[in-house]
Amino acid sequence: MIDVQDLTKQYAGRVAVDHISFRVEPGEIVGFLGPNGAGKSTTMRILSGFMPPTSGRAMVAGHDVFRDSLNVRRKVGYMPENAPLYTDMKVKEYLHFRGELKGLRGRDLRVRTGEAMDLCAITDVRRRLIGNLSKGYKQRVALADALIHRPPLLILDEPTNGLDPTQIRHVRELLRSLRPAHTILLSTHILSEVELTCDRVIMLHHGRIRASDTPRNLARQLRATSLVRLELQGDGRISEKLEALPGVRKVIVEKPDGAWQCYSLRVESQNDIREAILDVATASRWKIRELHRQLPTLEDVFVELAASEEGKKR
Amino acid sequence: MRTFWVLLKKEVKAFFVSPVAFIVLALLMVLNGFSFRAALTVLETAPSEGSIVTWTFQPLWFWLSYFFIFPLLTMRLFAEEKKLGTLETLFTAPVSTWQVVGAKFLAALIIYCILWLPGMGNFALLKWISGGVVEVPGGALKGSAVILFVMGLFNLAVGCFASSLTSNQIVAAIISFTTSLLHFLLGIFITNIGKKIPAAFADIVNYIASVEHIRTFTNGLIDTRPIVYYVSLAALFLALTHQVVEFRRWRP
């Protein structure tokens, strides 16, 4: 459905997307994951035919995004970041206009408009002005617009941005229900989001693809180490005992808080060593105030990824 | 073609959803009334060469209203879409840049034509009230309709262009207002400094003087030169607008 080869986009000397290549097969839900400025939106704008790449090639549904832009746009439902909409139109009126623009006519147009509004749960606001709607509703109007003409490919830029947890769950279910007929490429910077929705994750950082795998494999790989924080009172060779535990890579001694000694342990995350620590503590008669395992945030993950890549280069 | 109609319908509707069209219409009706009254005064006091039509499109009142129309009608067209970010949704639907530029321009033109209807109605009203005593020459009326239309084409195209340059409507309005006004002043300035410049140069500038155009056309003389001049300038500015809107698709 999507075939990207060596795609590069530069803005006035700044490289936003740097020679990326990937493929998306029909029926897949693929997530773009990365911090702000990673090049997610730029890639999606290129794929939806809004702007041309600086170099490289991108094919969508068999059409070149630059040379055959109109055909690409007929087959793509694109929802830009922050859901830009005409604020002085009513919801139904807007979807009607968008449907007509995308080639729907007569009965077809009416039926699809109704369907899209039902799917996105916005039927109850169909007579209201878009400008007066809450962020969550606006977001769903934009989503309804993206899927009104039943495009084979949906490109959604942060579709759950600004929604509350119930609405996020609703969108997630909606996307999954679209799966057989639609291929979906979505972007987000929320790790859990991707894990729950996507078949595959493409991770972008500084305009490059850092990883591309199923969420499960990726999460395992990314969470290779986790951090365990520990506050205790006791004597004896505490750090040595902690280091001796299986799976501990590094023990960091932190600033003590009064009589309490603080440690951070970098641990291989396959095994949860909290119980083992507790066992050692009871055996050595330590008093424990805090024992907490921290899963790495996306930020940590990227730092780790970047670091490991640097390492590979050397 | 179908896409073009869909876009045009939406653009025309947008004028009436926001109060813009109504405000401009009200403004124009008031100022038209003043210039019509001024023309009547001229004819009341002394015998005169021109007809009621000629005098209506001469006074300061007319030019005062005239230059306010274009920024008000066109400043929104592209600037608002840029500000809202809807240019992105618009151009990721299967529409071509020409369809969008054309629809926006034509919508503004339609509103512009509607704006003059009450003003033209004044003449019919005068004829009816005076029981046919005051003569409203048909040729002059047609001539003024033609010149207003082609001058509108040009100034609206300038406005479209100004609006495509920026995401700020005020900036767009200022650019289009200044450009239209400069073009007008270029014609005036020659008549003012008059004989001090070579006659050949003055002749050339007279070709582009809007005041002159209005004078000949409202006397019922339909000259093709100003028509060609304004239509080709309008085409130029629309082509420039197209290029600006298309700019993001250029390969660096």
Detailed description of the structure:
The complex is a heterodimer of chains A (314) and B (252). Helices cover 37% and strands 31% of the residues of chain A. Chain A is of the alpha/beta class and 314 residues long. Chain A has two domains: 2-221, P-loop containing nucleotide triphosphate hydrolases (Rossmann fold, 3-Layer(aba) Sandwich), CATH 3.40.50; 225-295, Alpha-Beta Plaits (2-Layer Sandwich). In chain A, a hairpin with a 2-residue loop joins strand 9 and strand 10. The radius of gyration of chain A is 24 Å and the shape is elongated. In chain A, 39% of the residues are buried. The model of chain A has no long low-confidence stretch (mean pLDDT 83). Chain B has helices at residues 2-17, 20-45, 52-56, 60-74, 76-84, 86-91, 97-129, 138-165, 169-193, 199-207, 210-218, 224-246. Chain B has one domain (2-249). In chain B, helix 8 crosses helix 9.
What attributes does this structure have?
heterodimer; A: about 325 residues; alpha/beta; Rossmann fold; Alpha-Beta Plaits; 2 domains; four-stranded antiparallel sheet; 14 strands; about 35% helix; B: about 250 residues; mainly alpha; globular
Radius of gyration of chain B, CA atoms, in whole angstroms: 20 Å
Q: Describe the main β-sheet of chain A briefly.
A: 6 strands, mixed
Q: What's the CATH superfamily of the largest domain in chain A, by name? A: P-loop containing nucleotide triphosphate hydrolases
Question: Span from first to last CA of chain A?
Answer: 36 Å
Mean pLDDT over all positions of chain B: 86
Level-2 CATH architecture of the largest domain in chain A: 3-Layer(aba) Sandwich
Q: Which band does the percent of strand residues of chain A land in?
A: 25-35%
- Low-confidence parts of chain B lasting 5 or more residues at pLDDT below 50? none
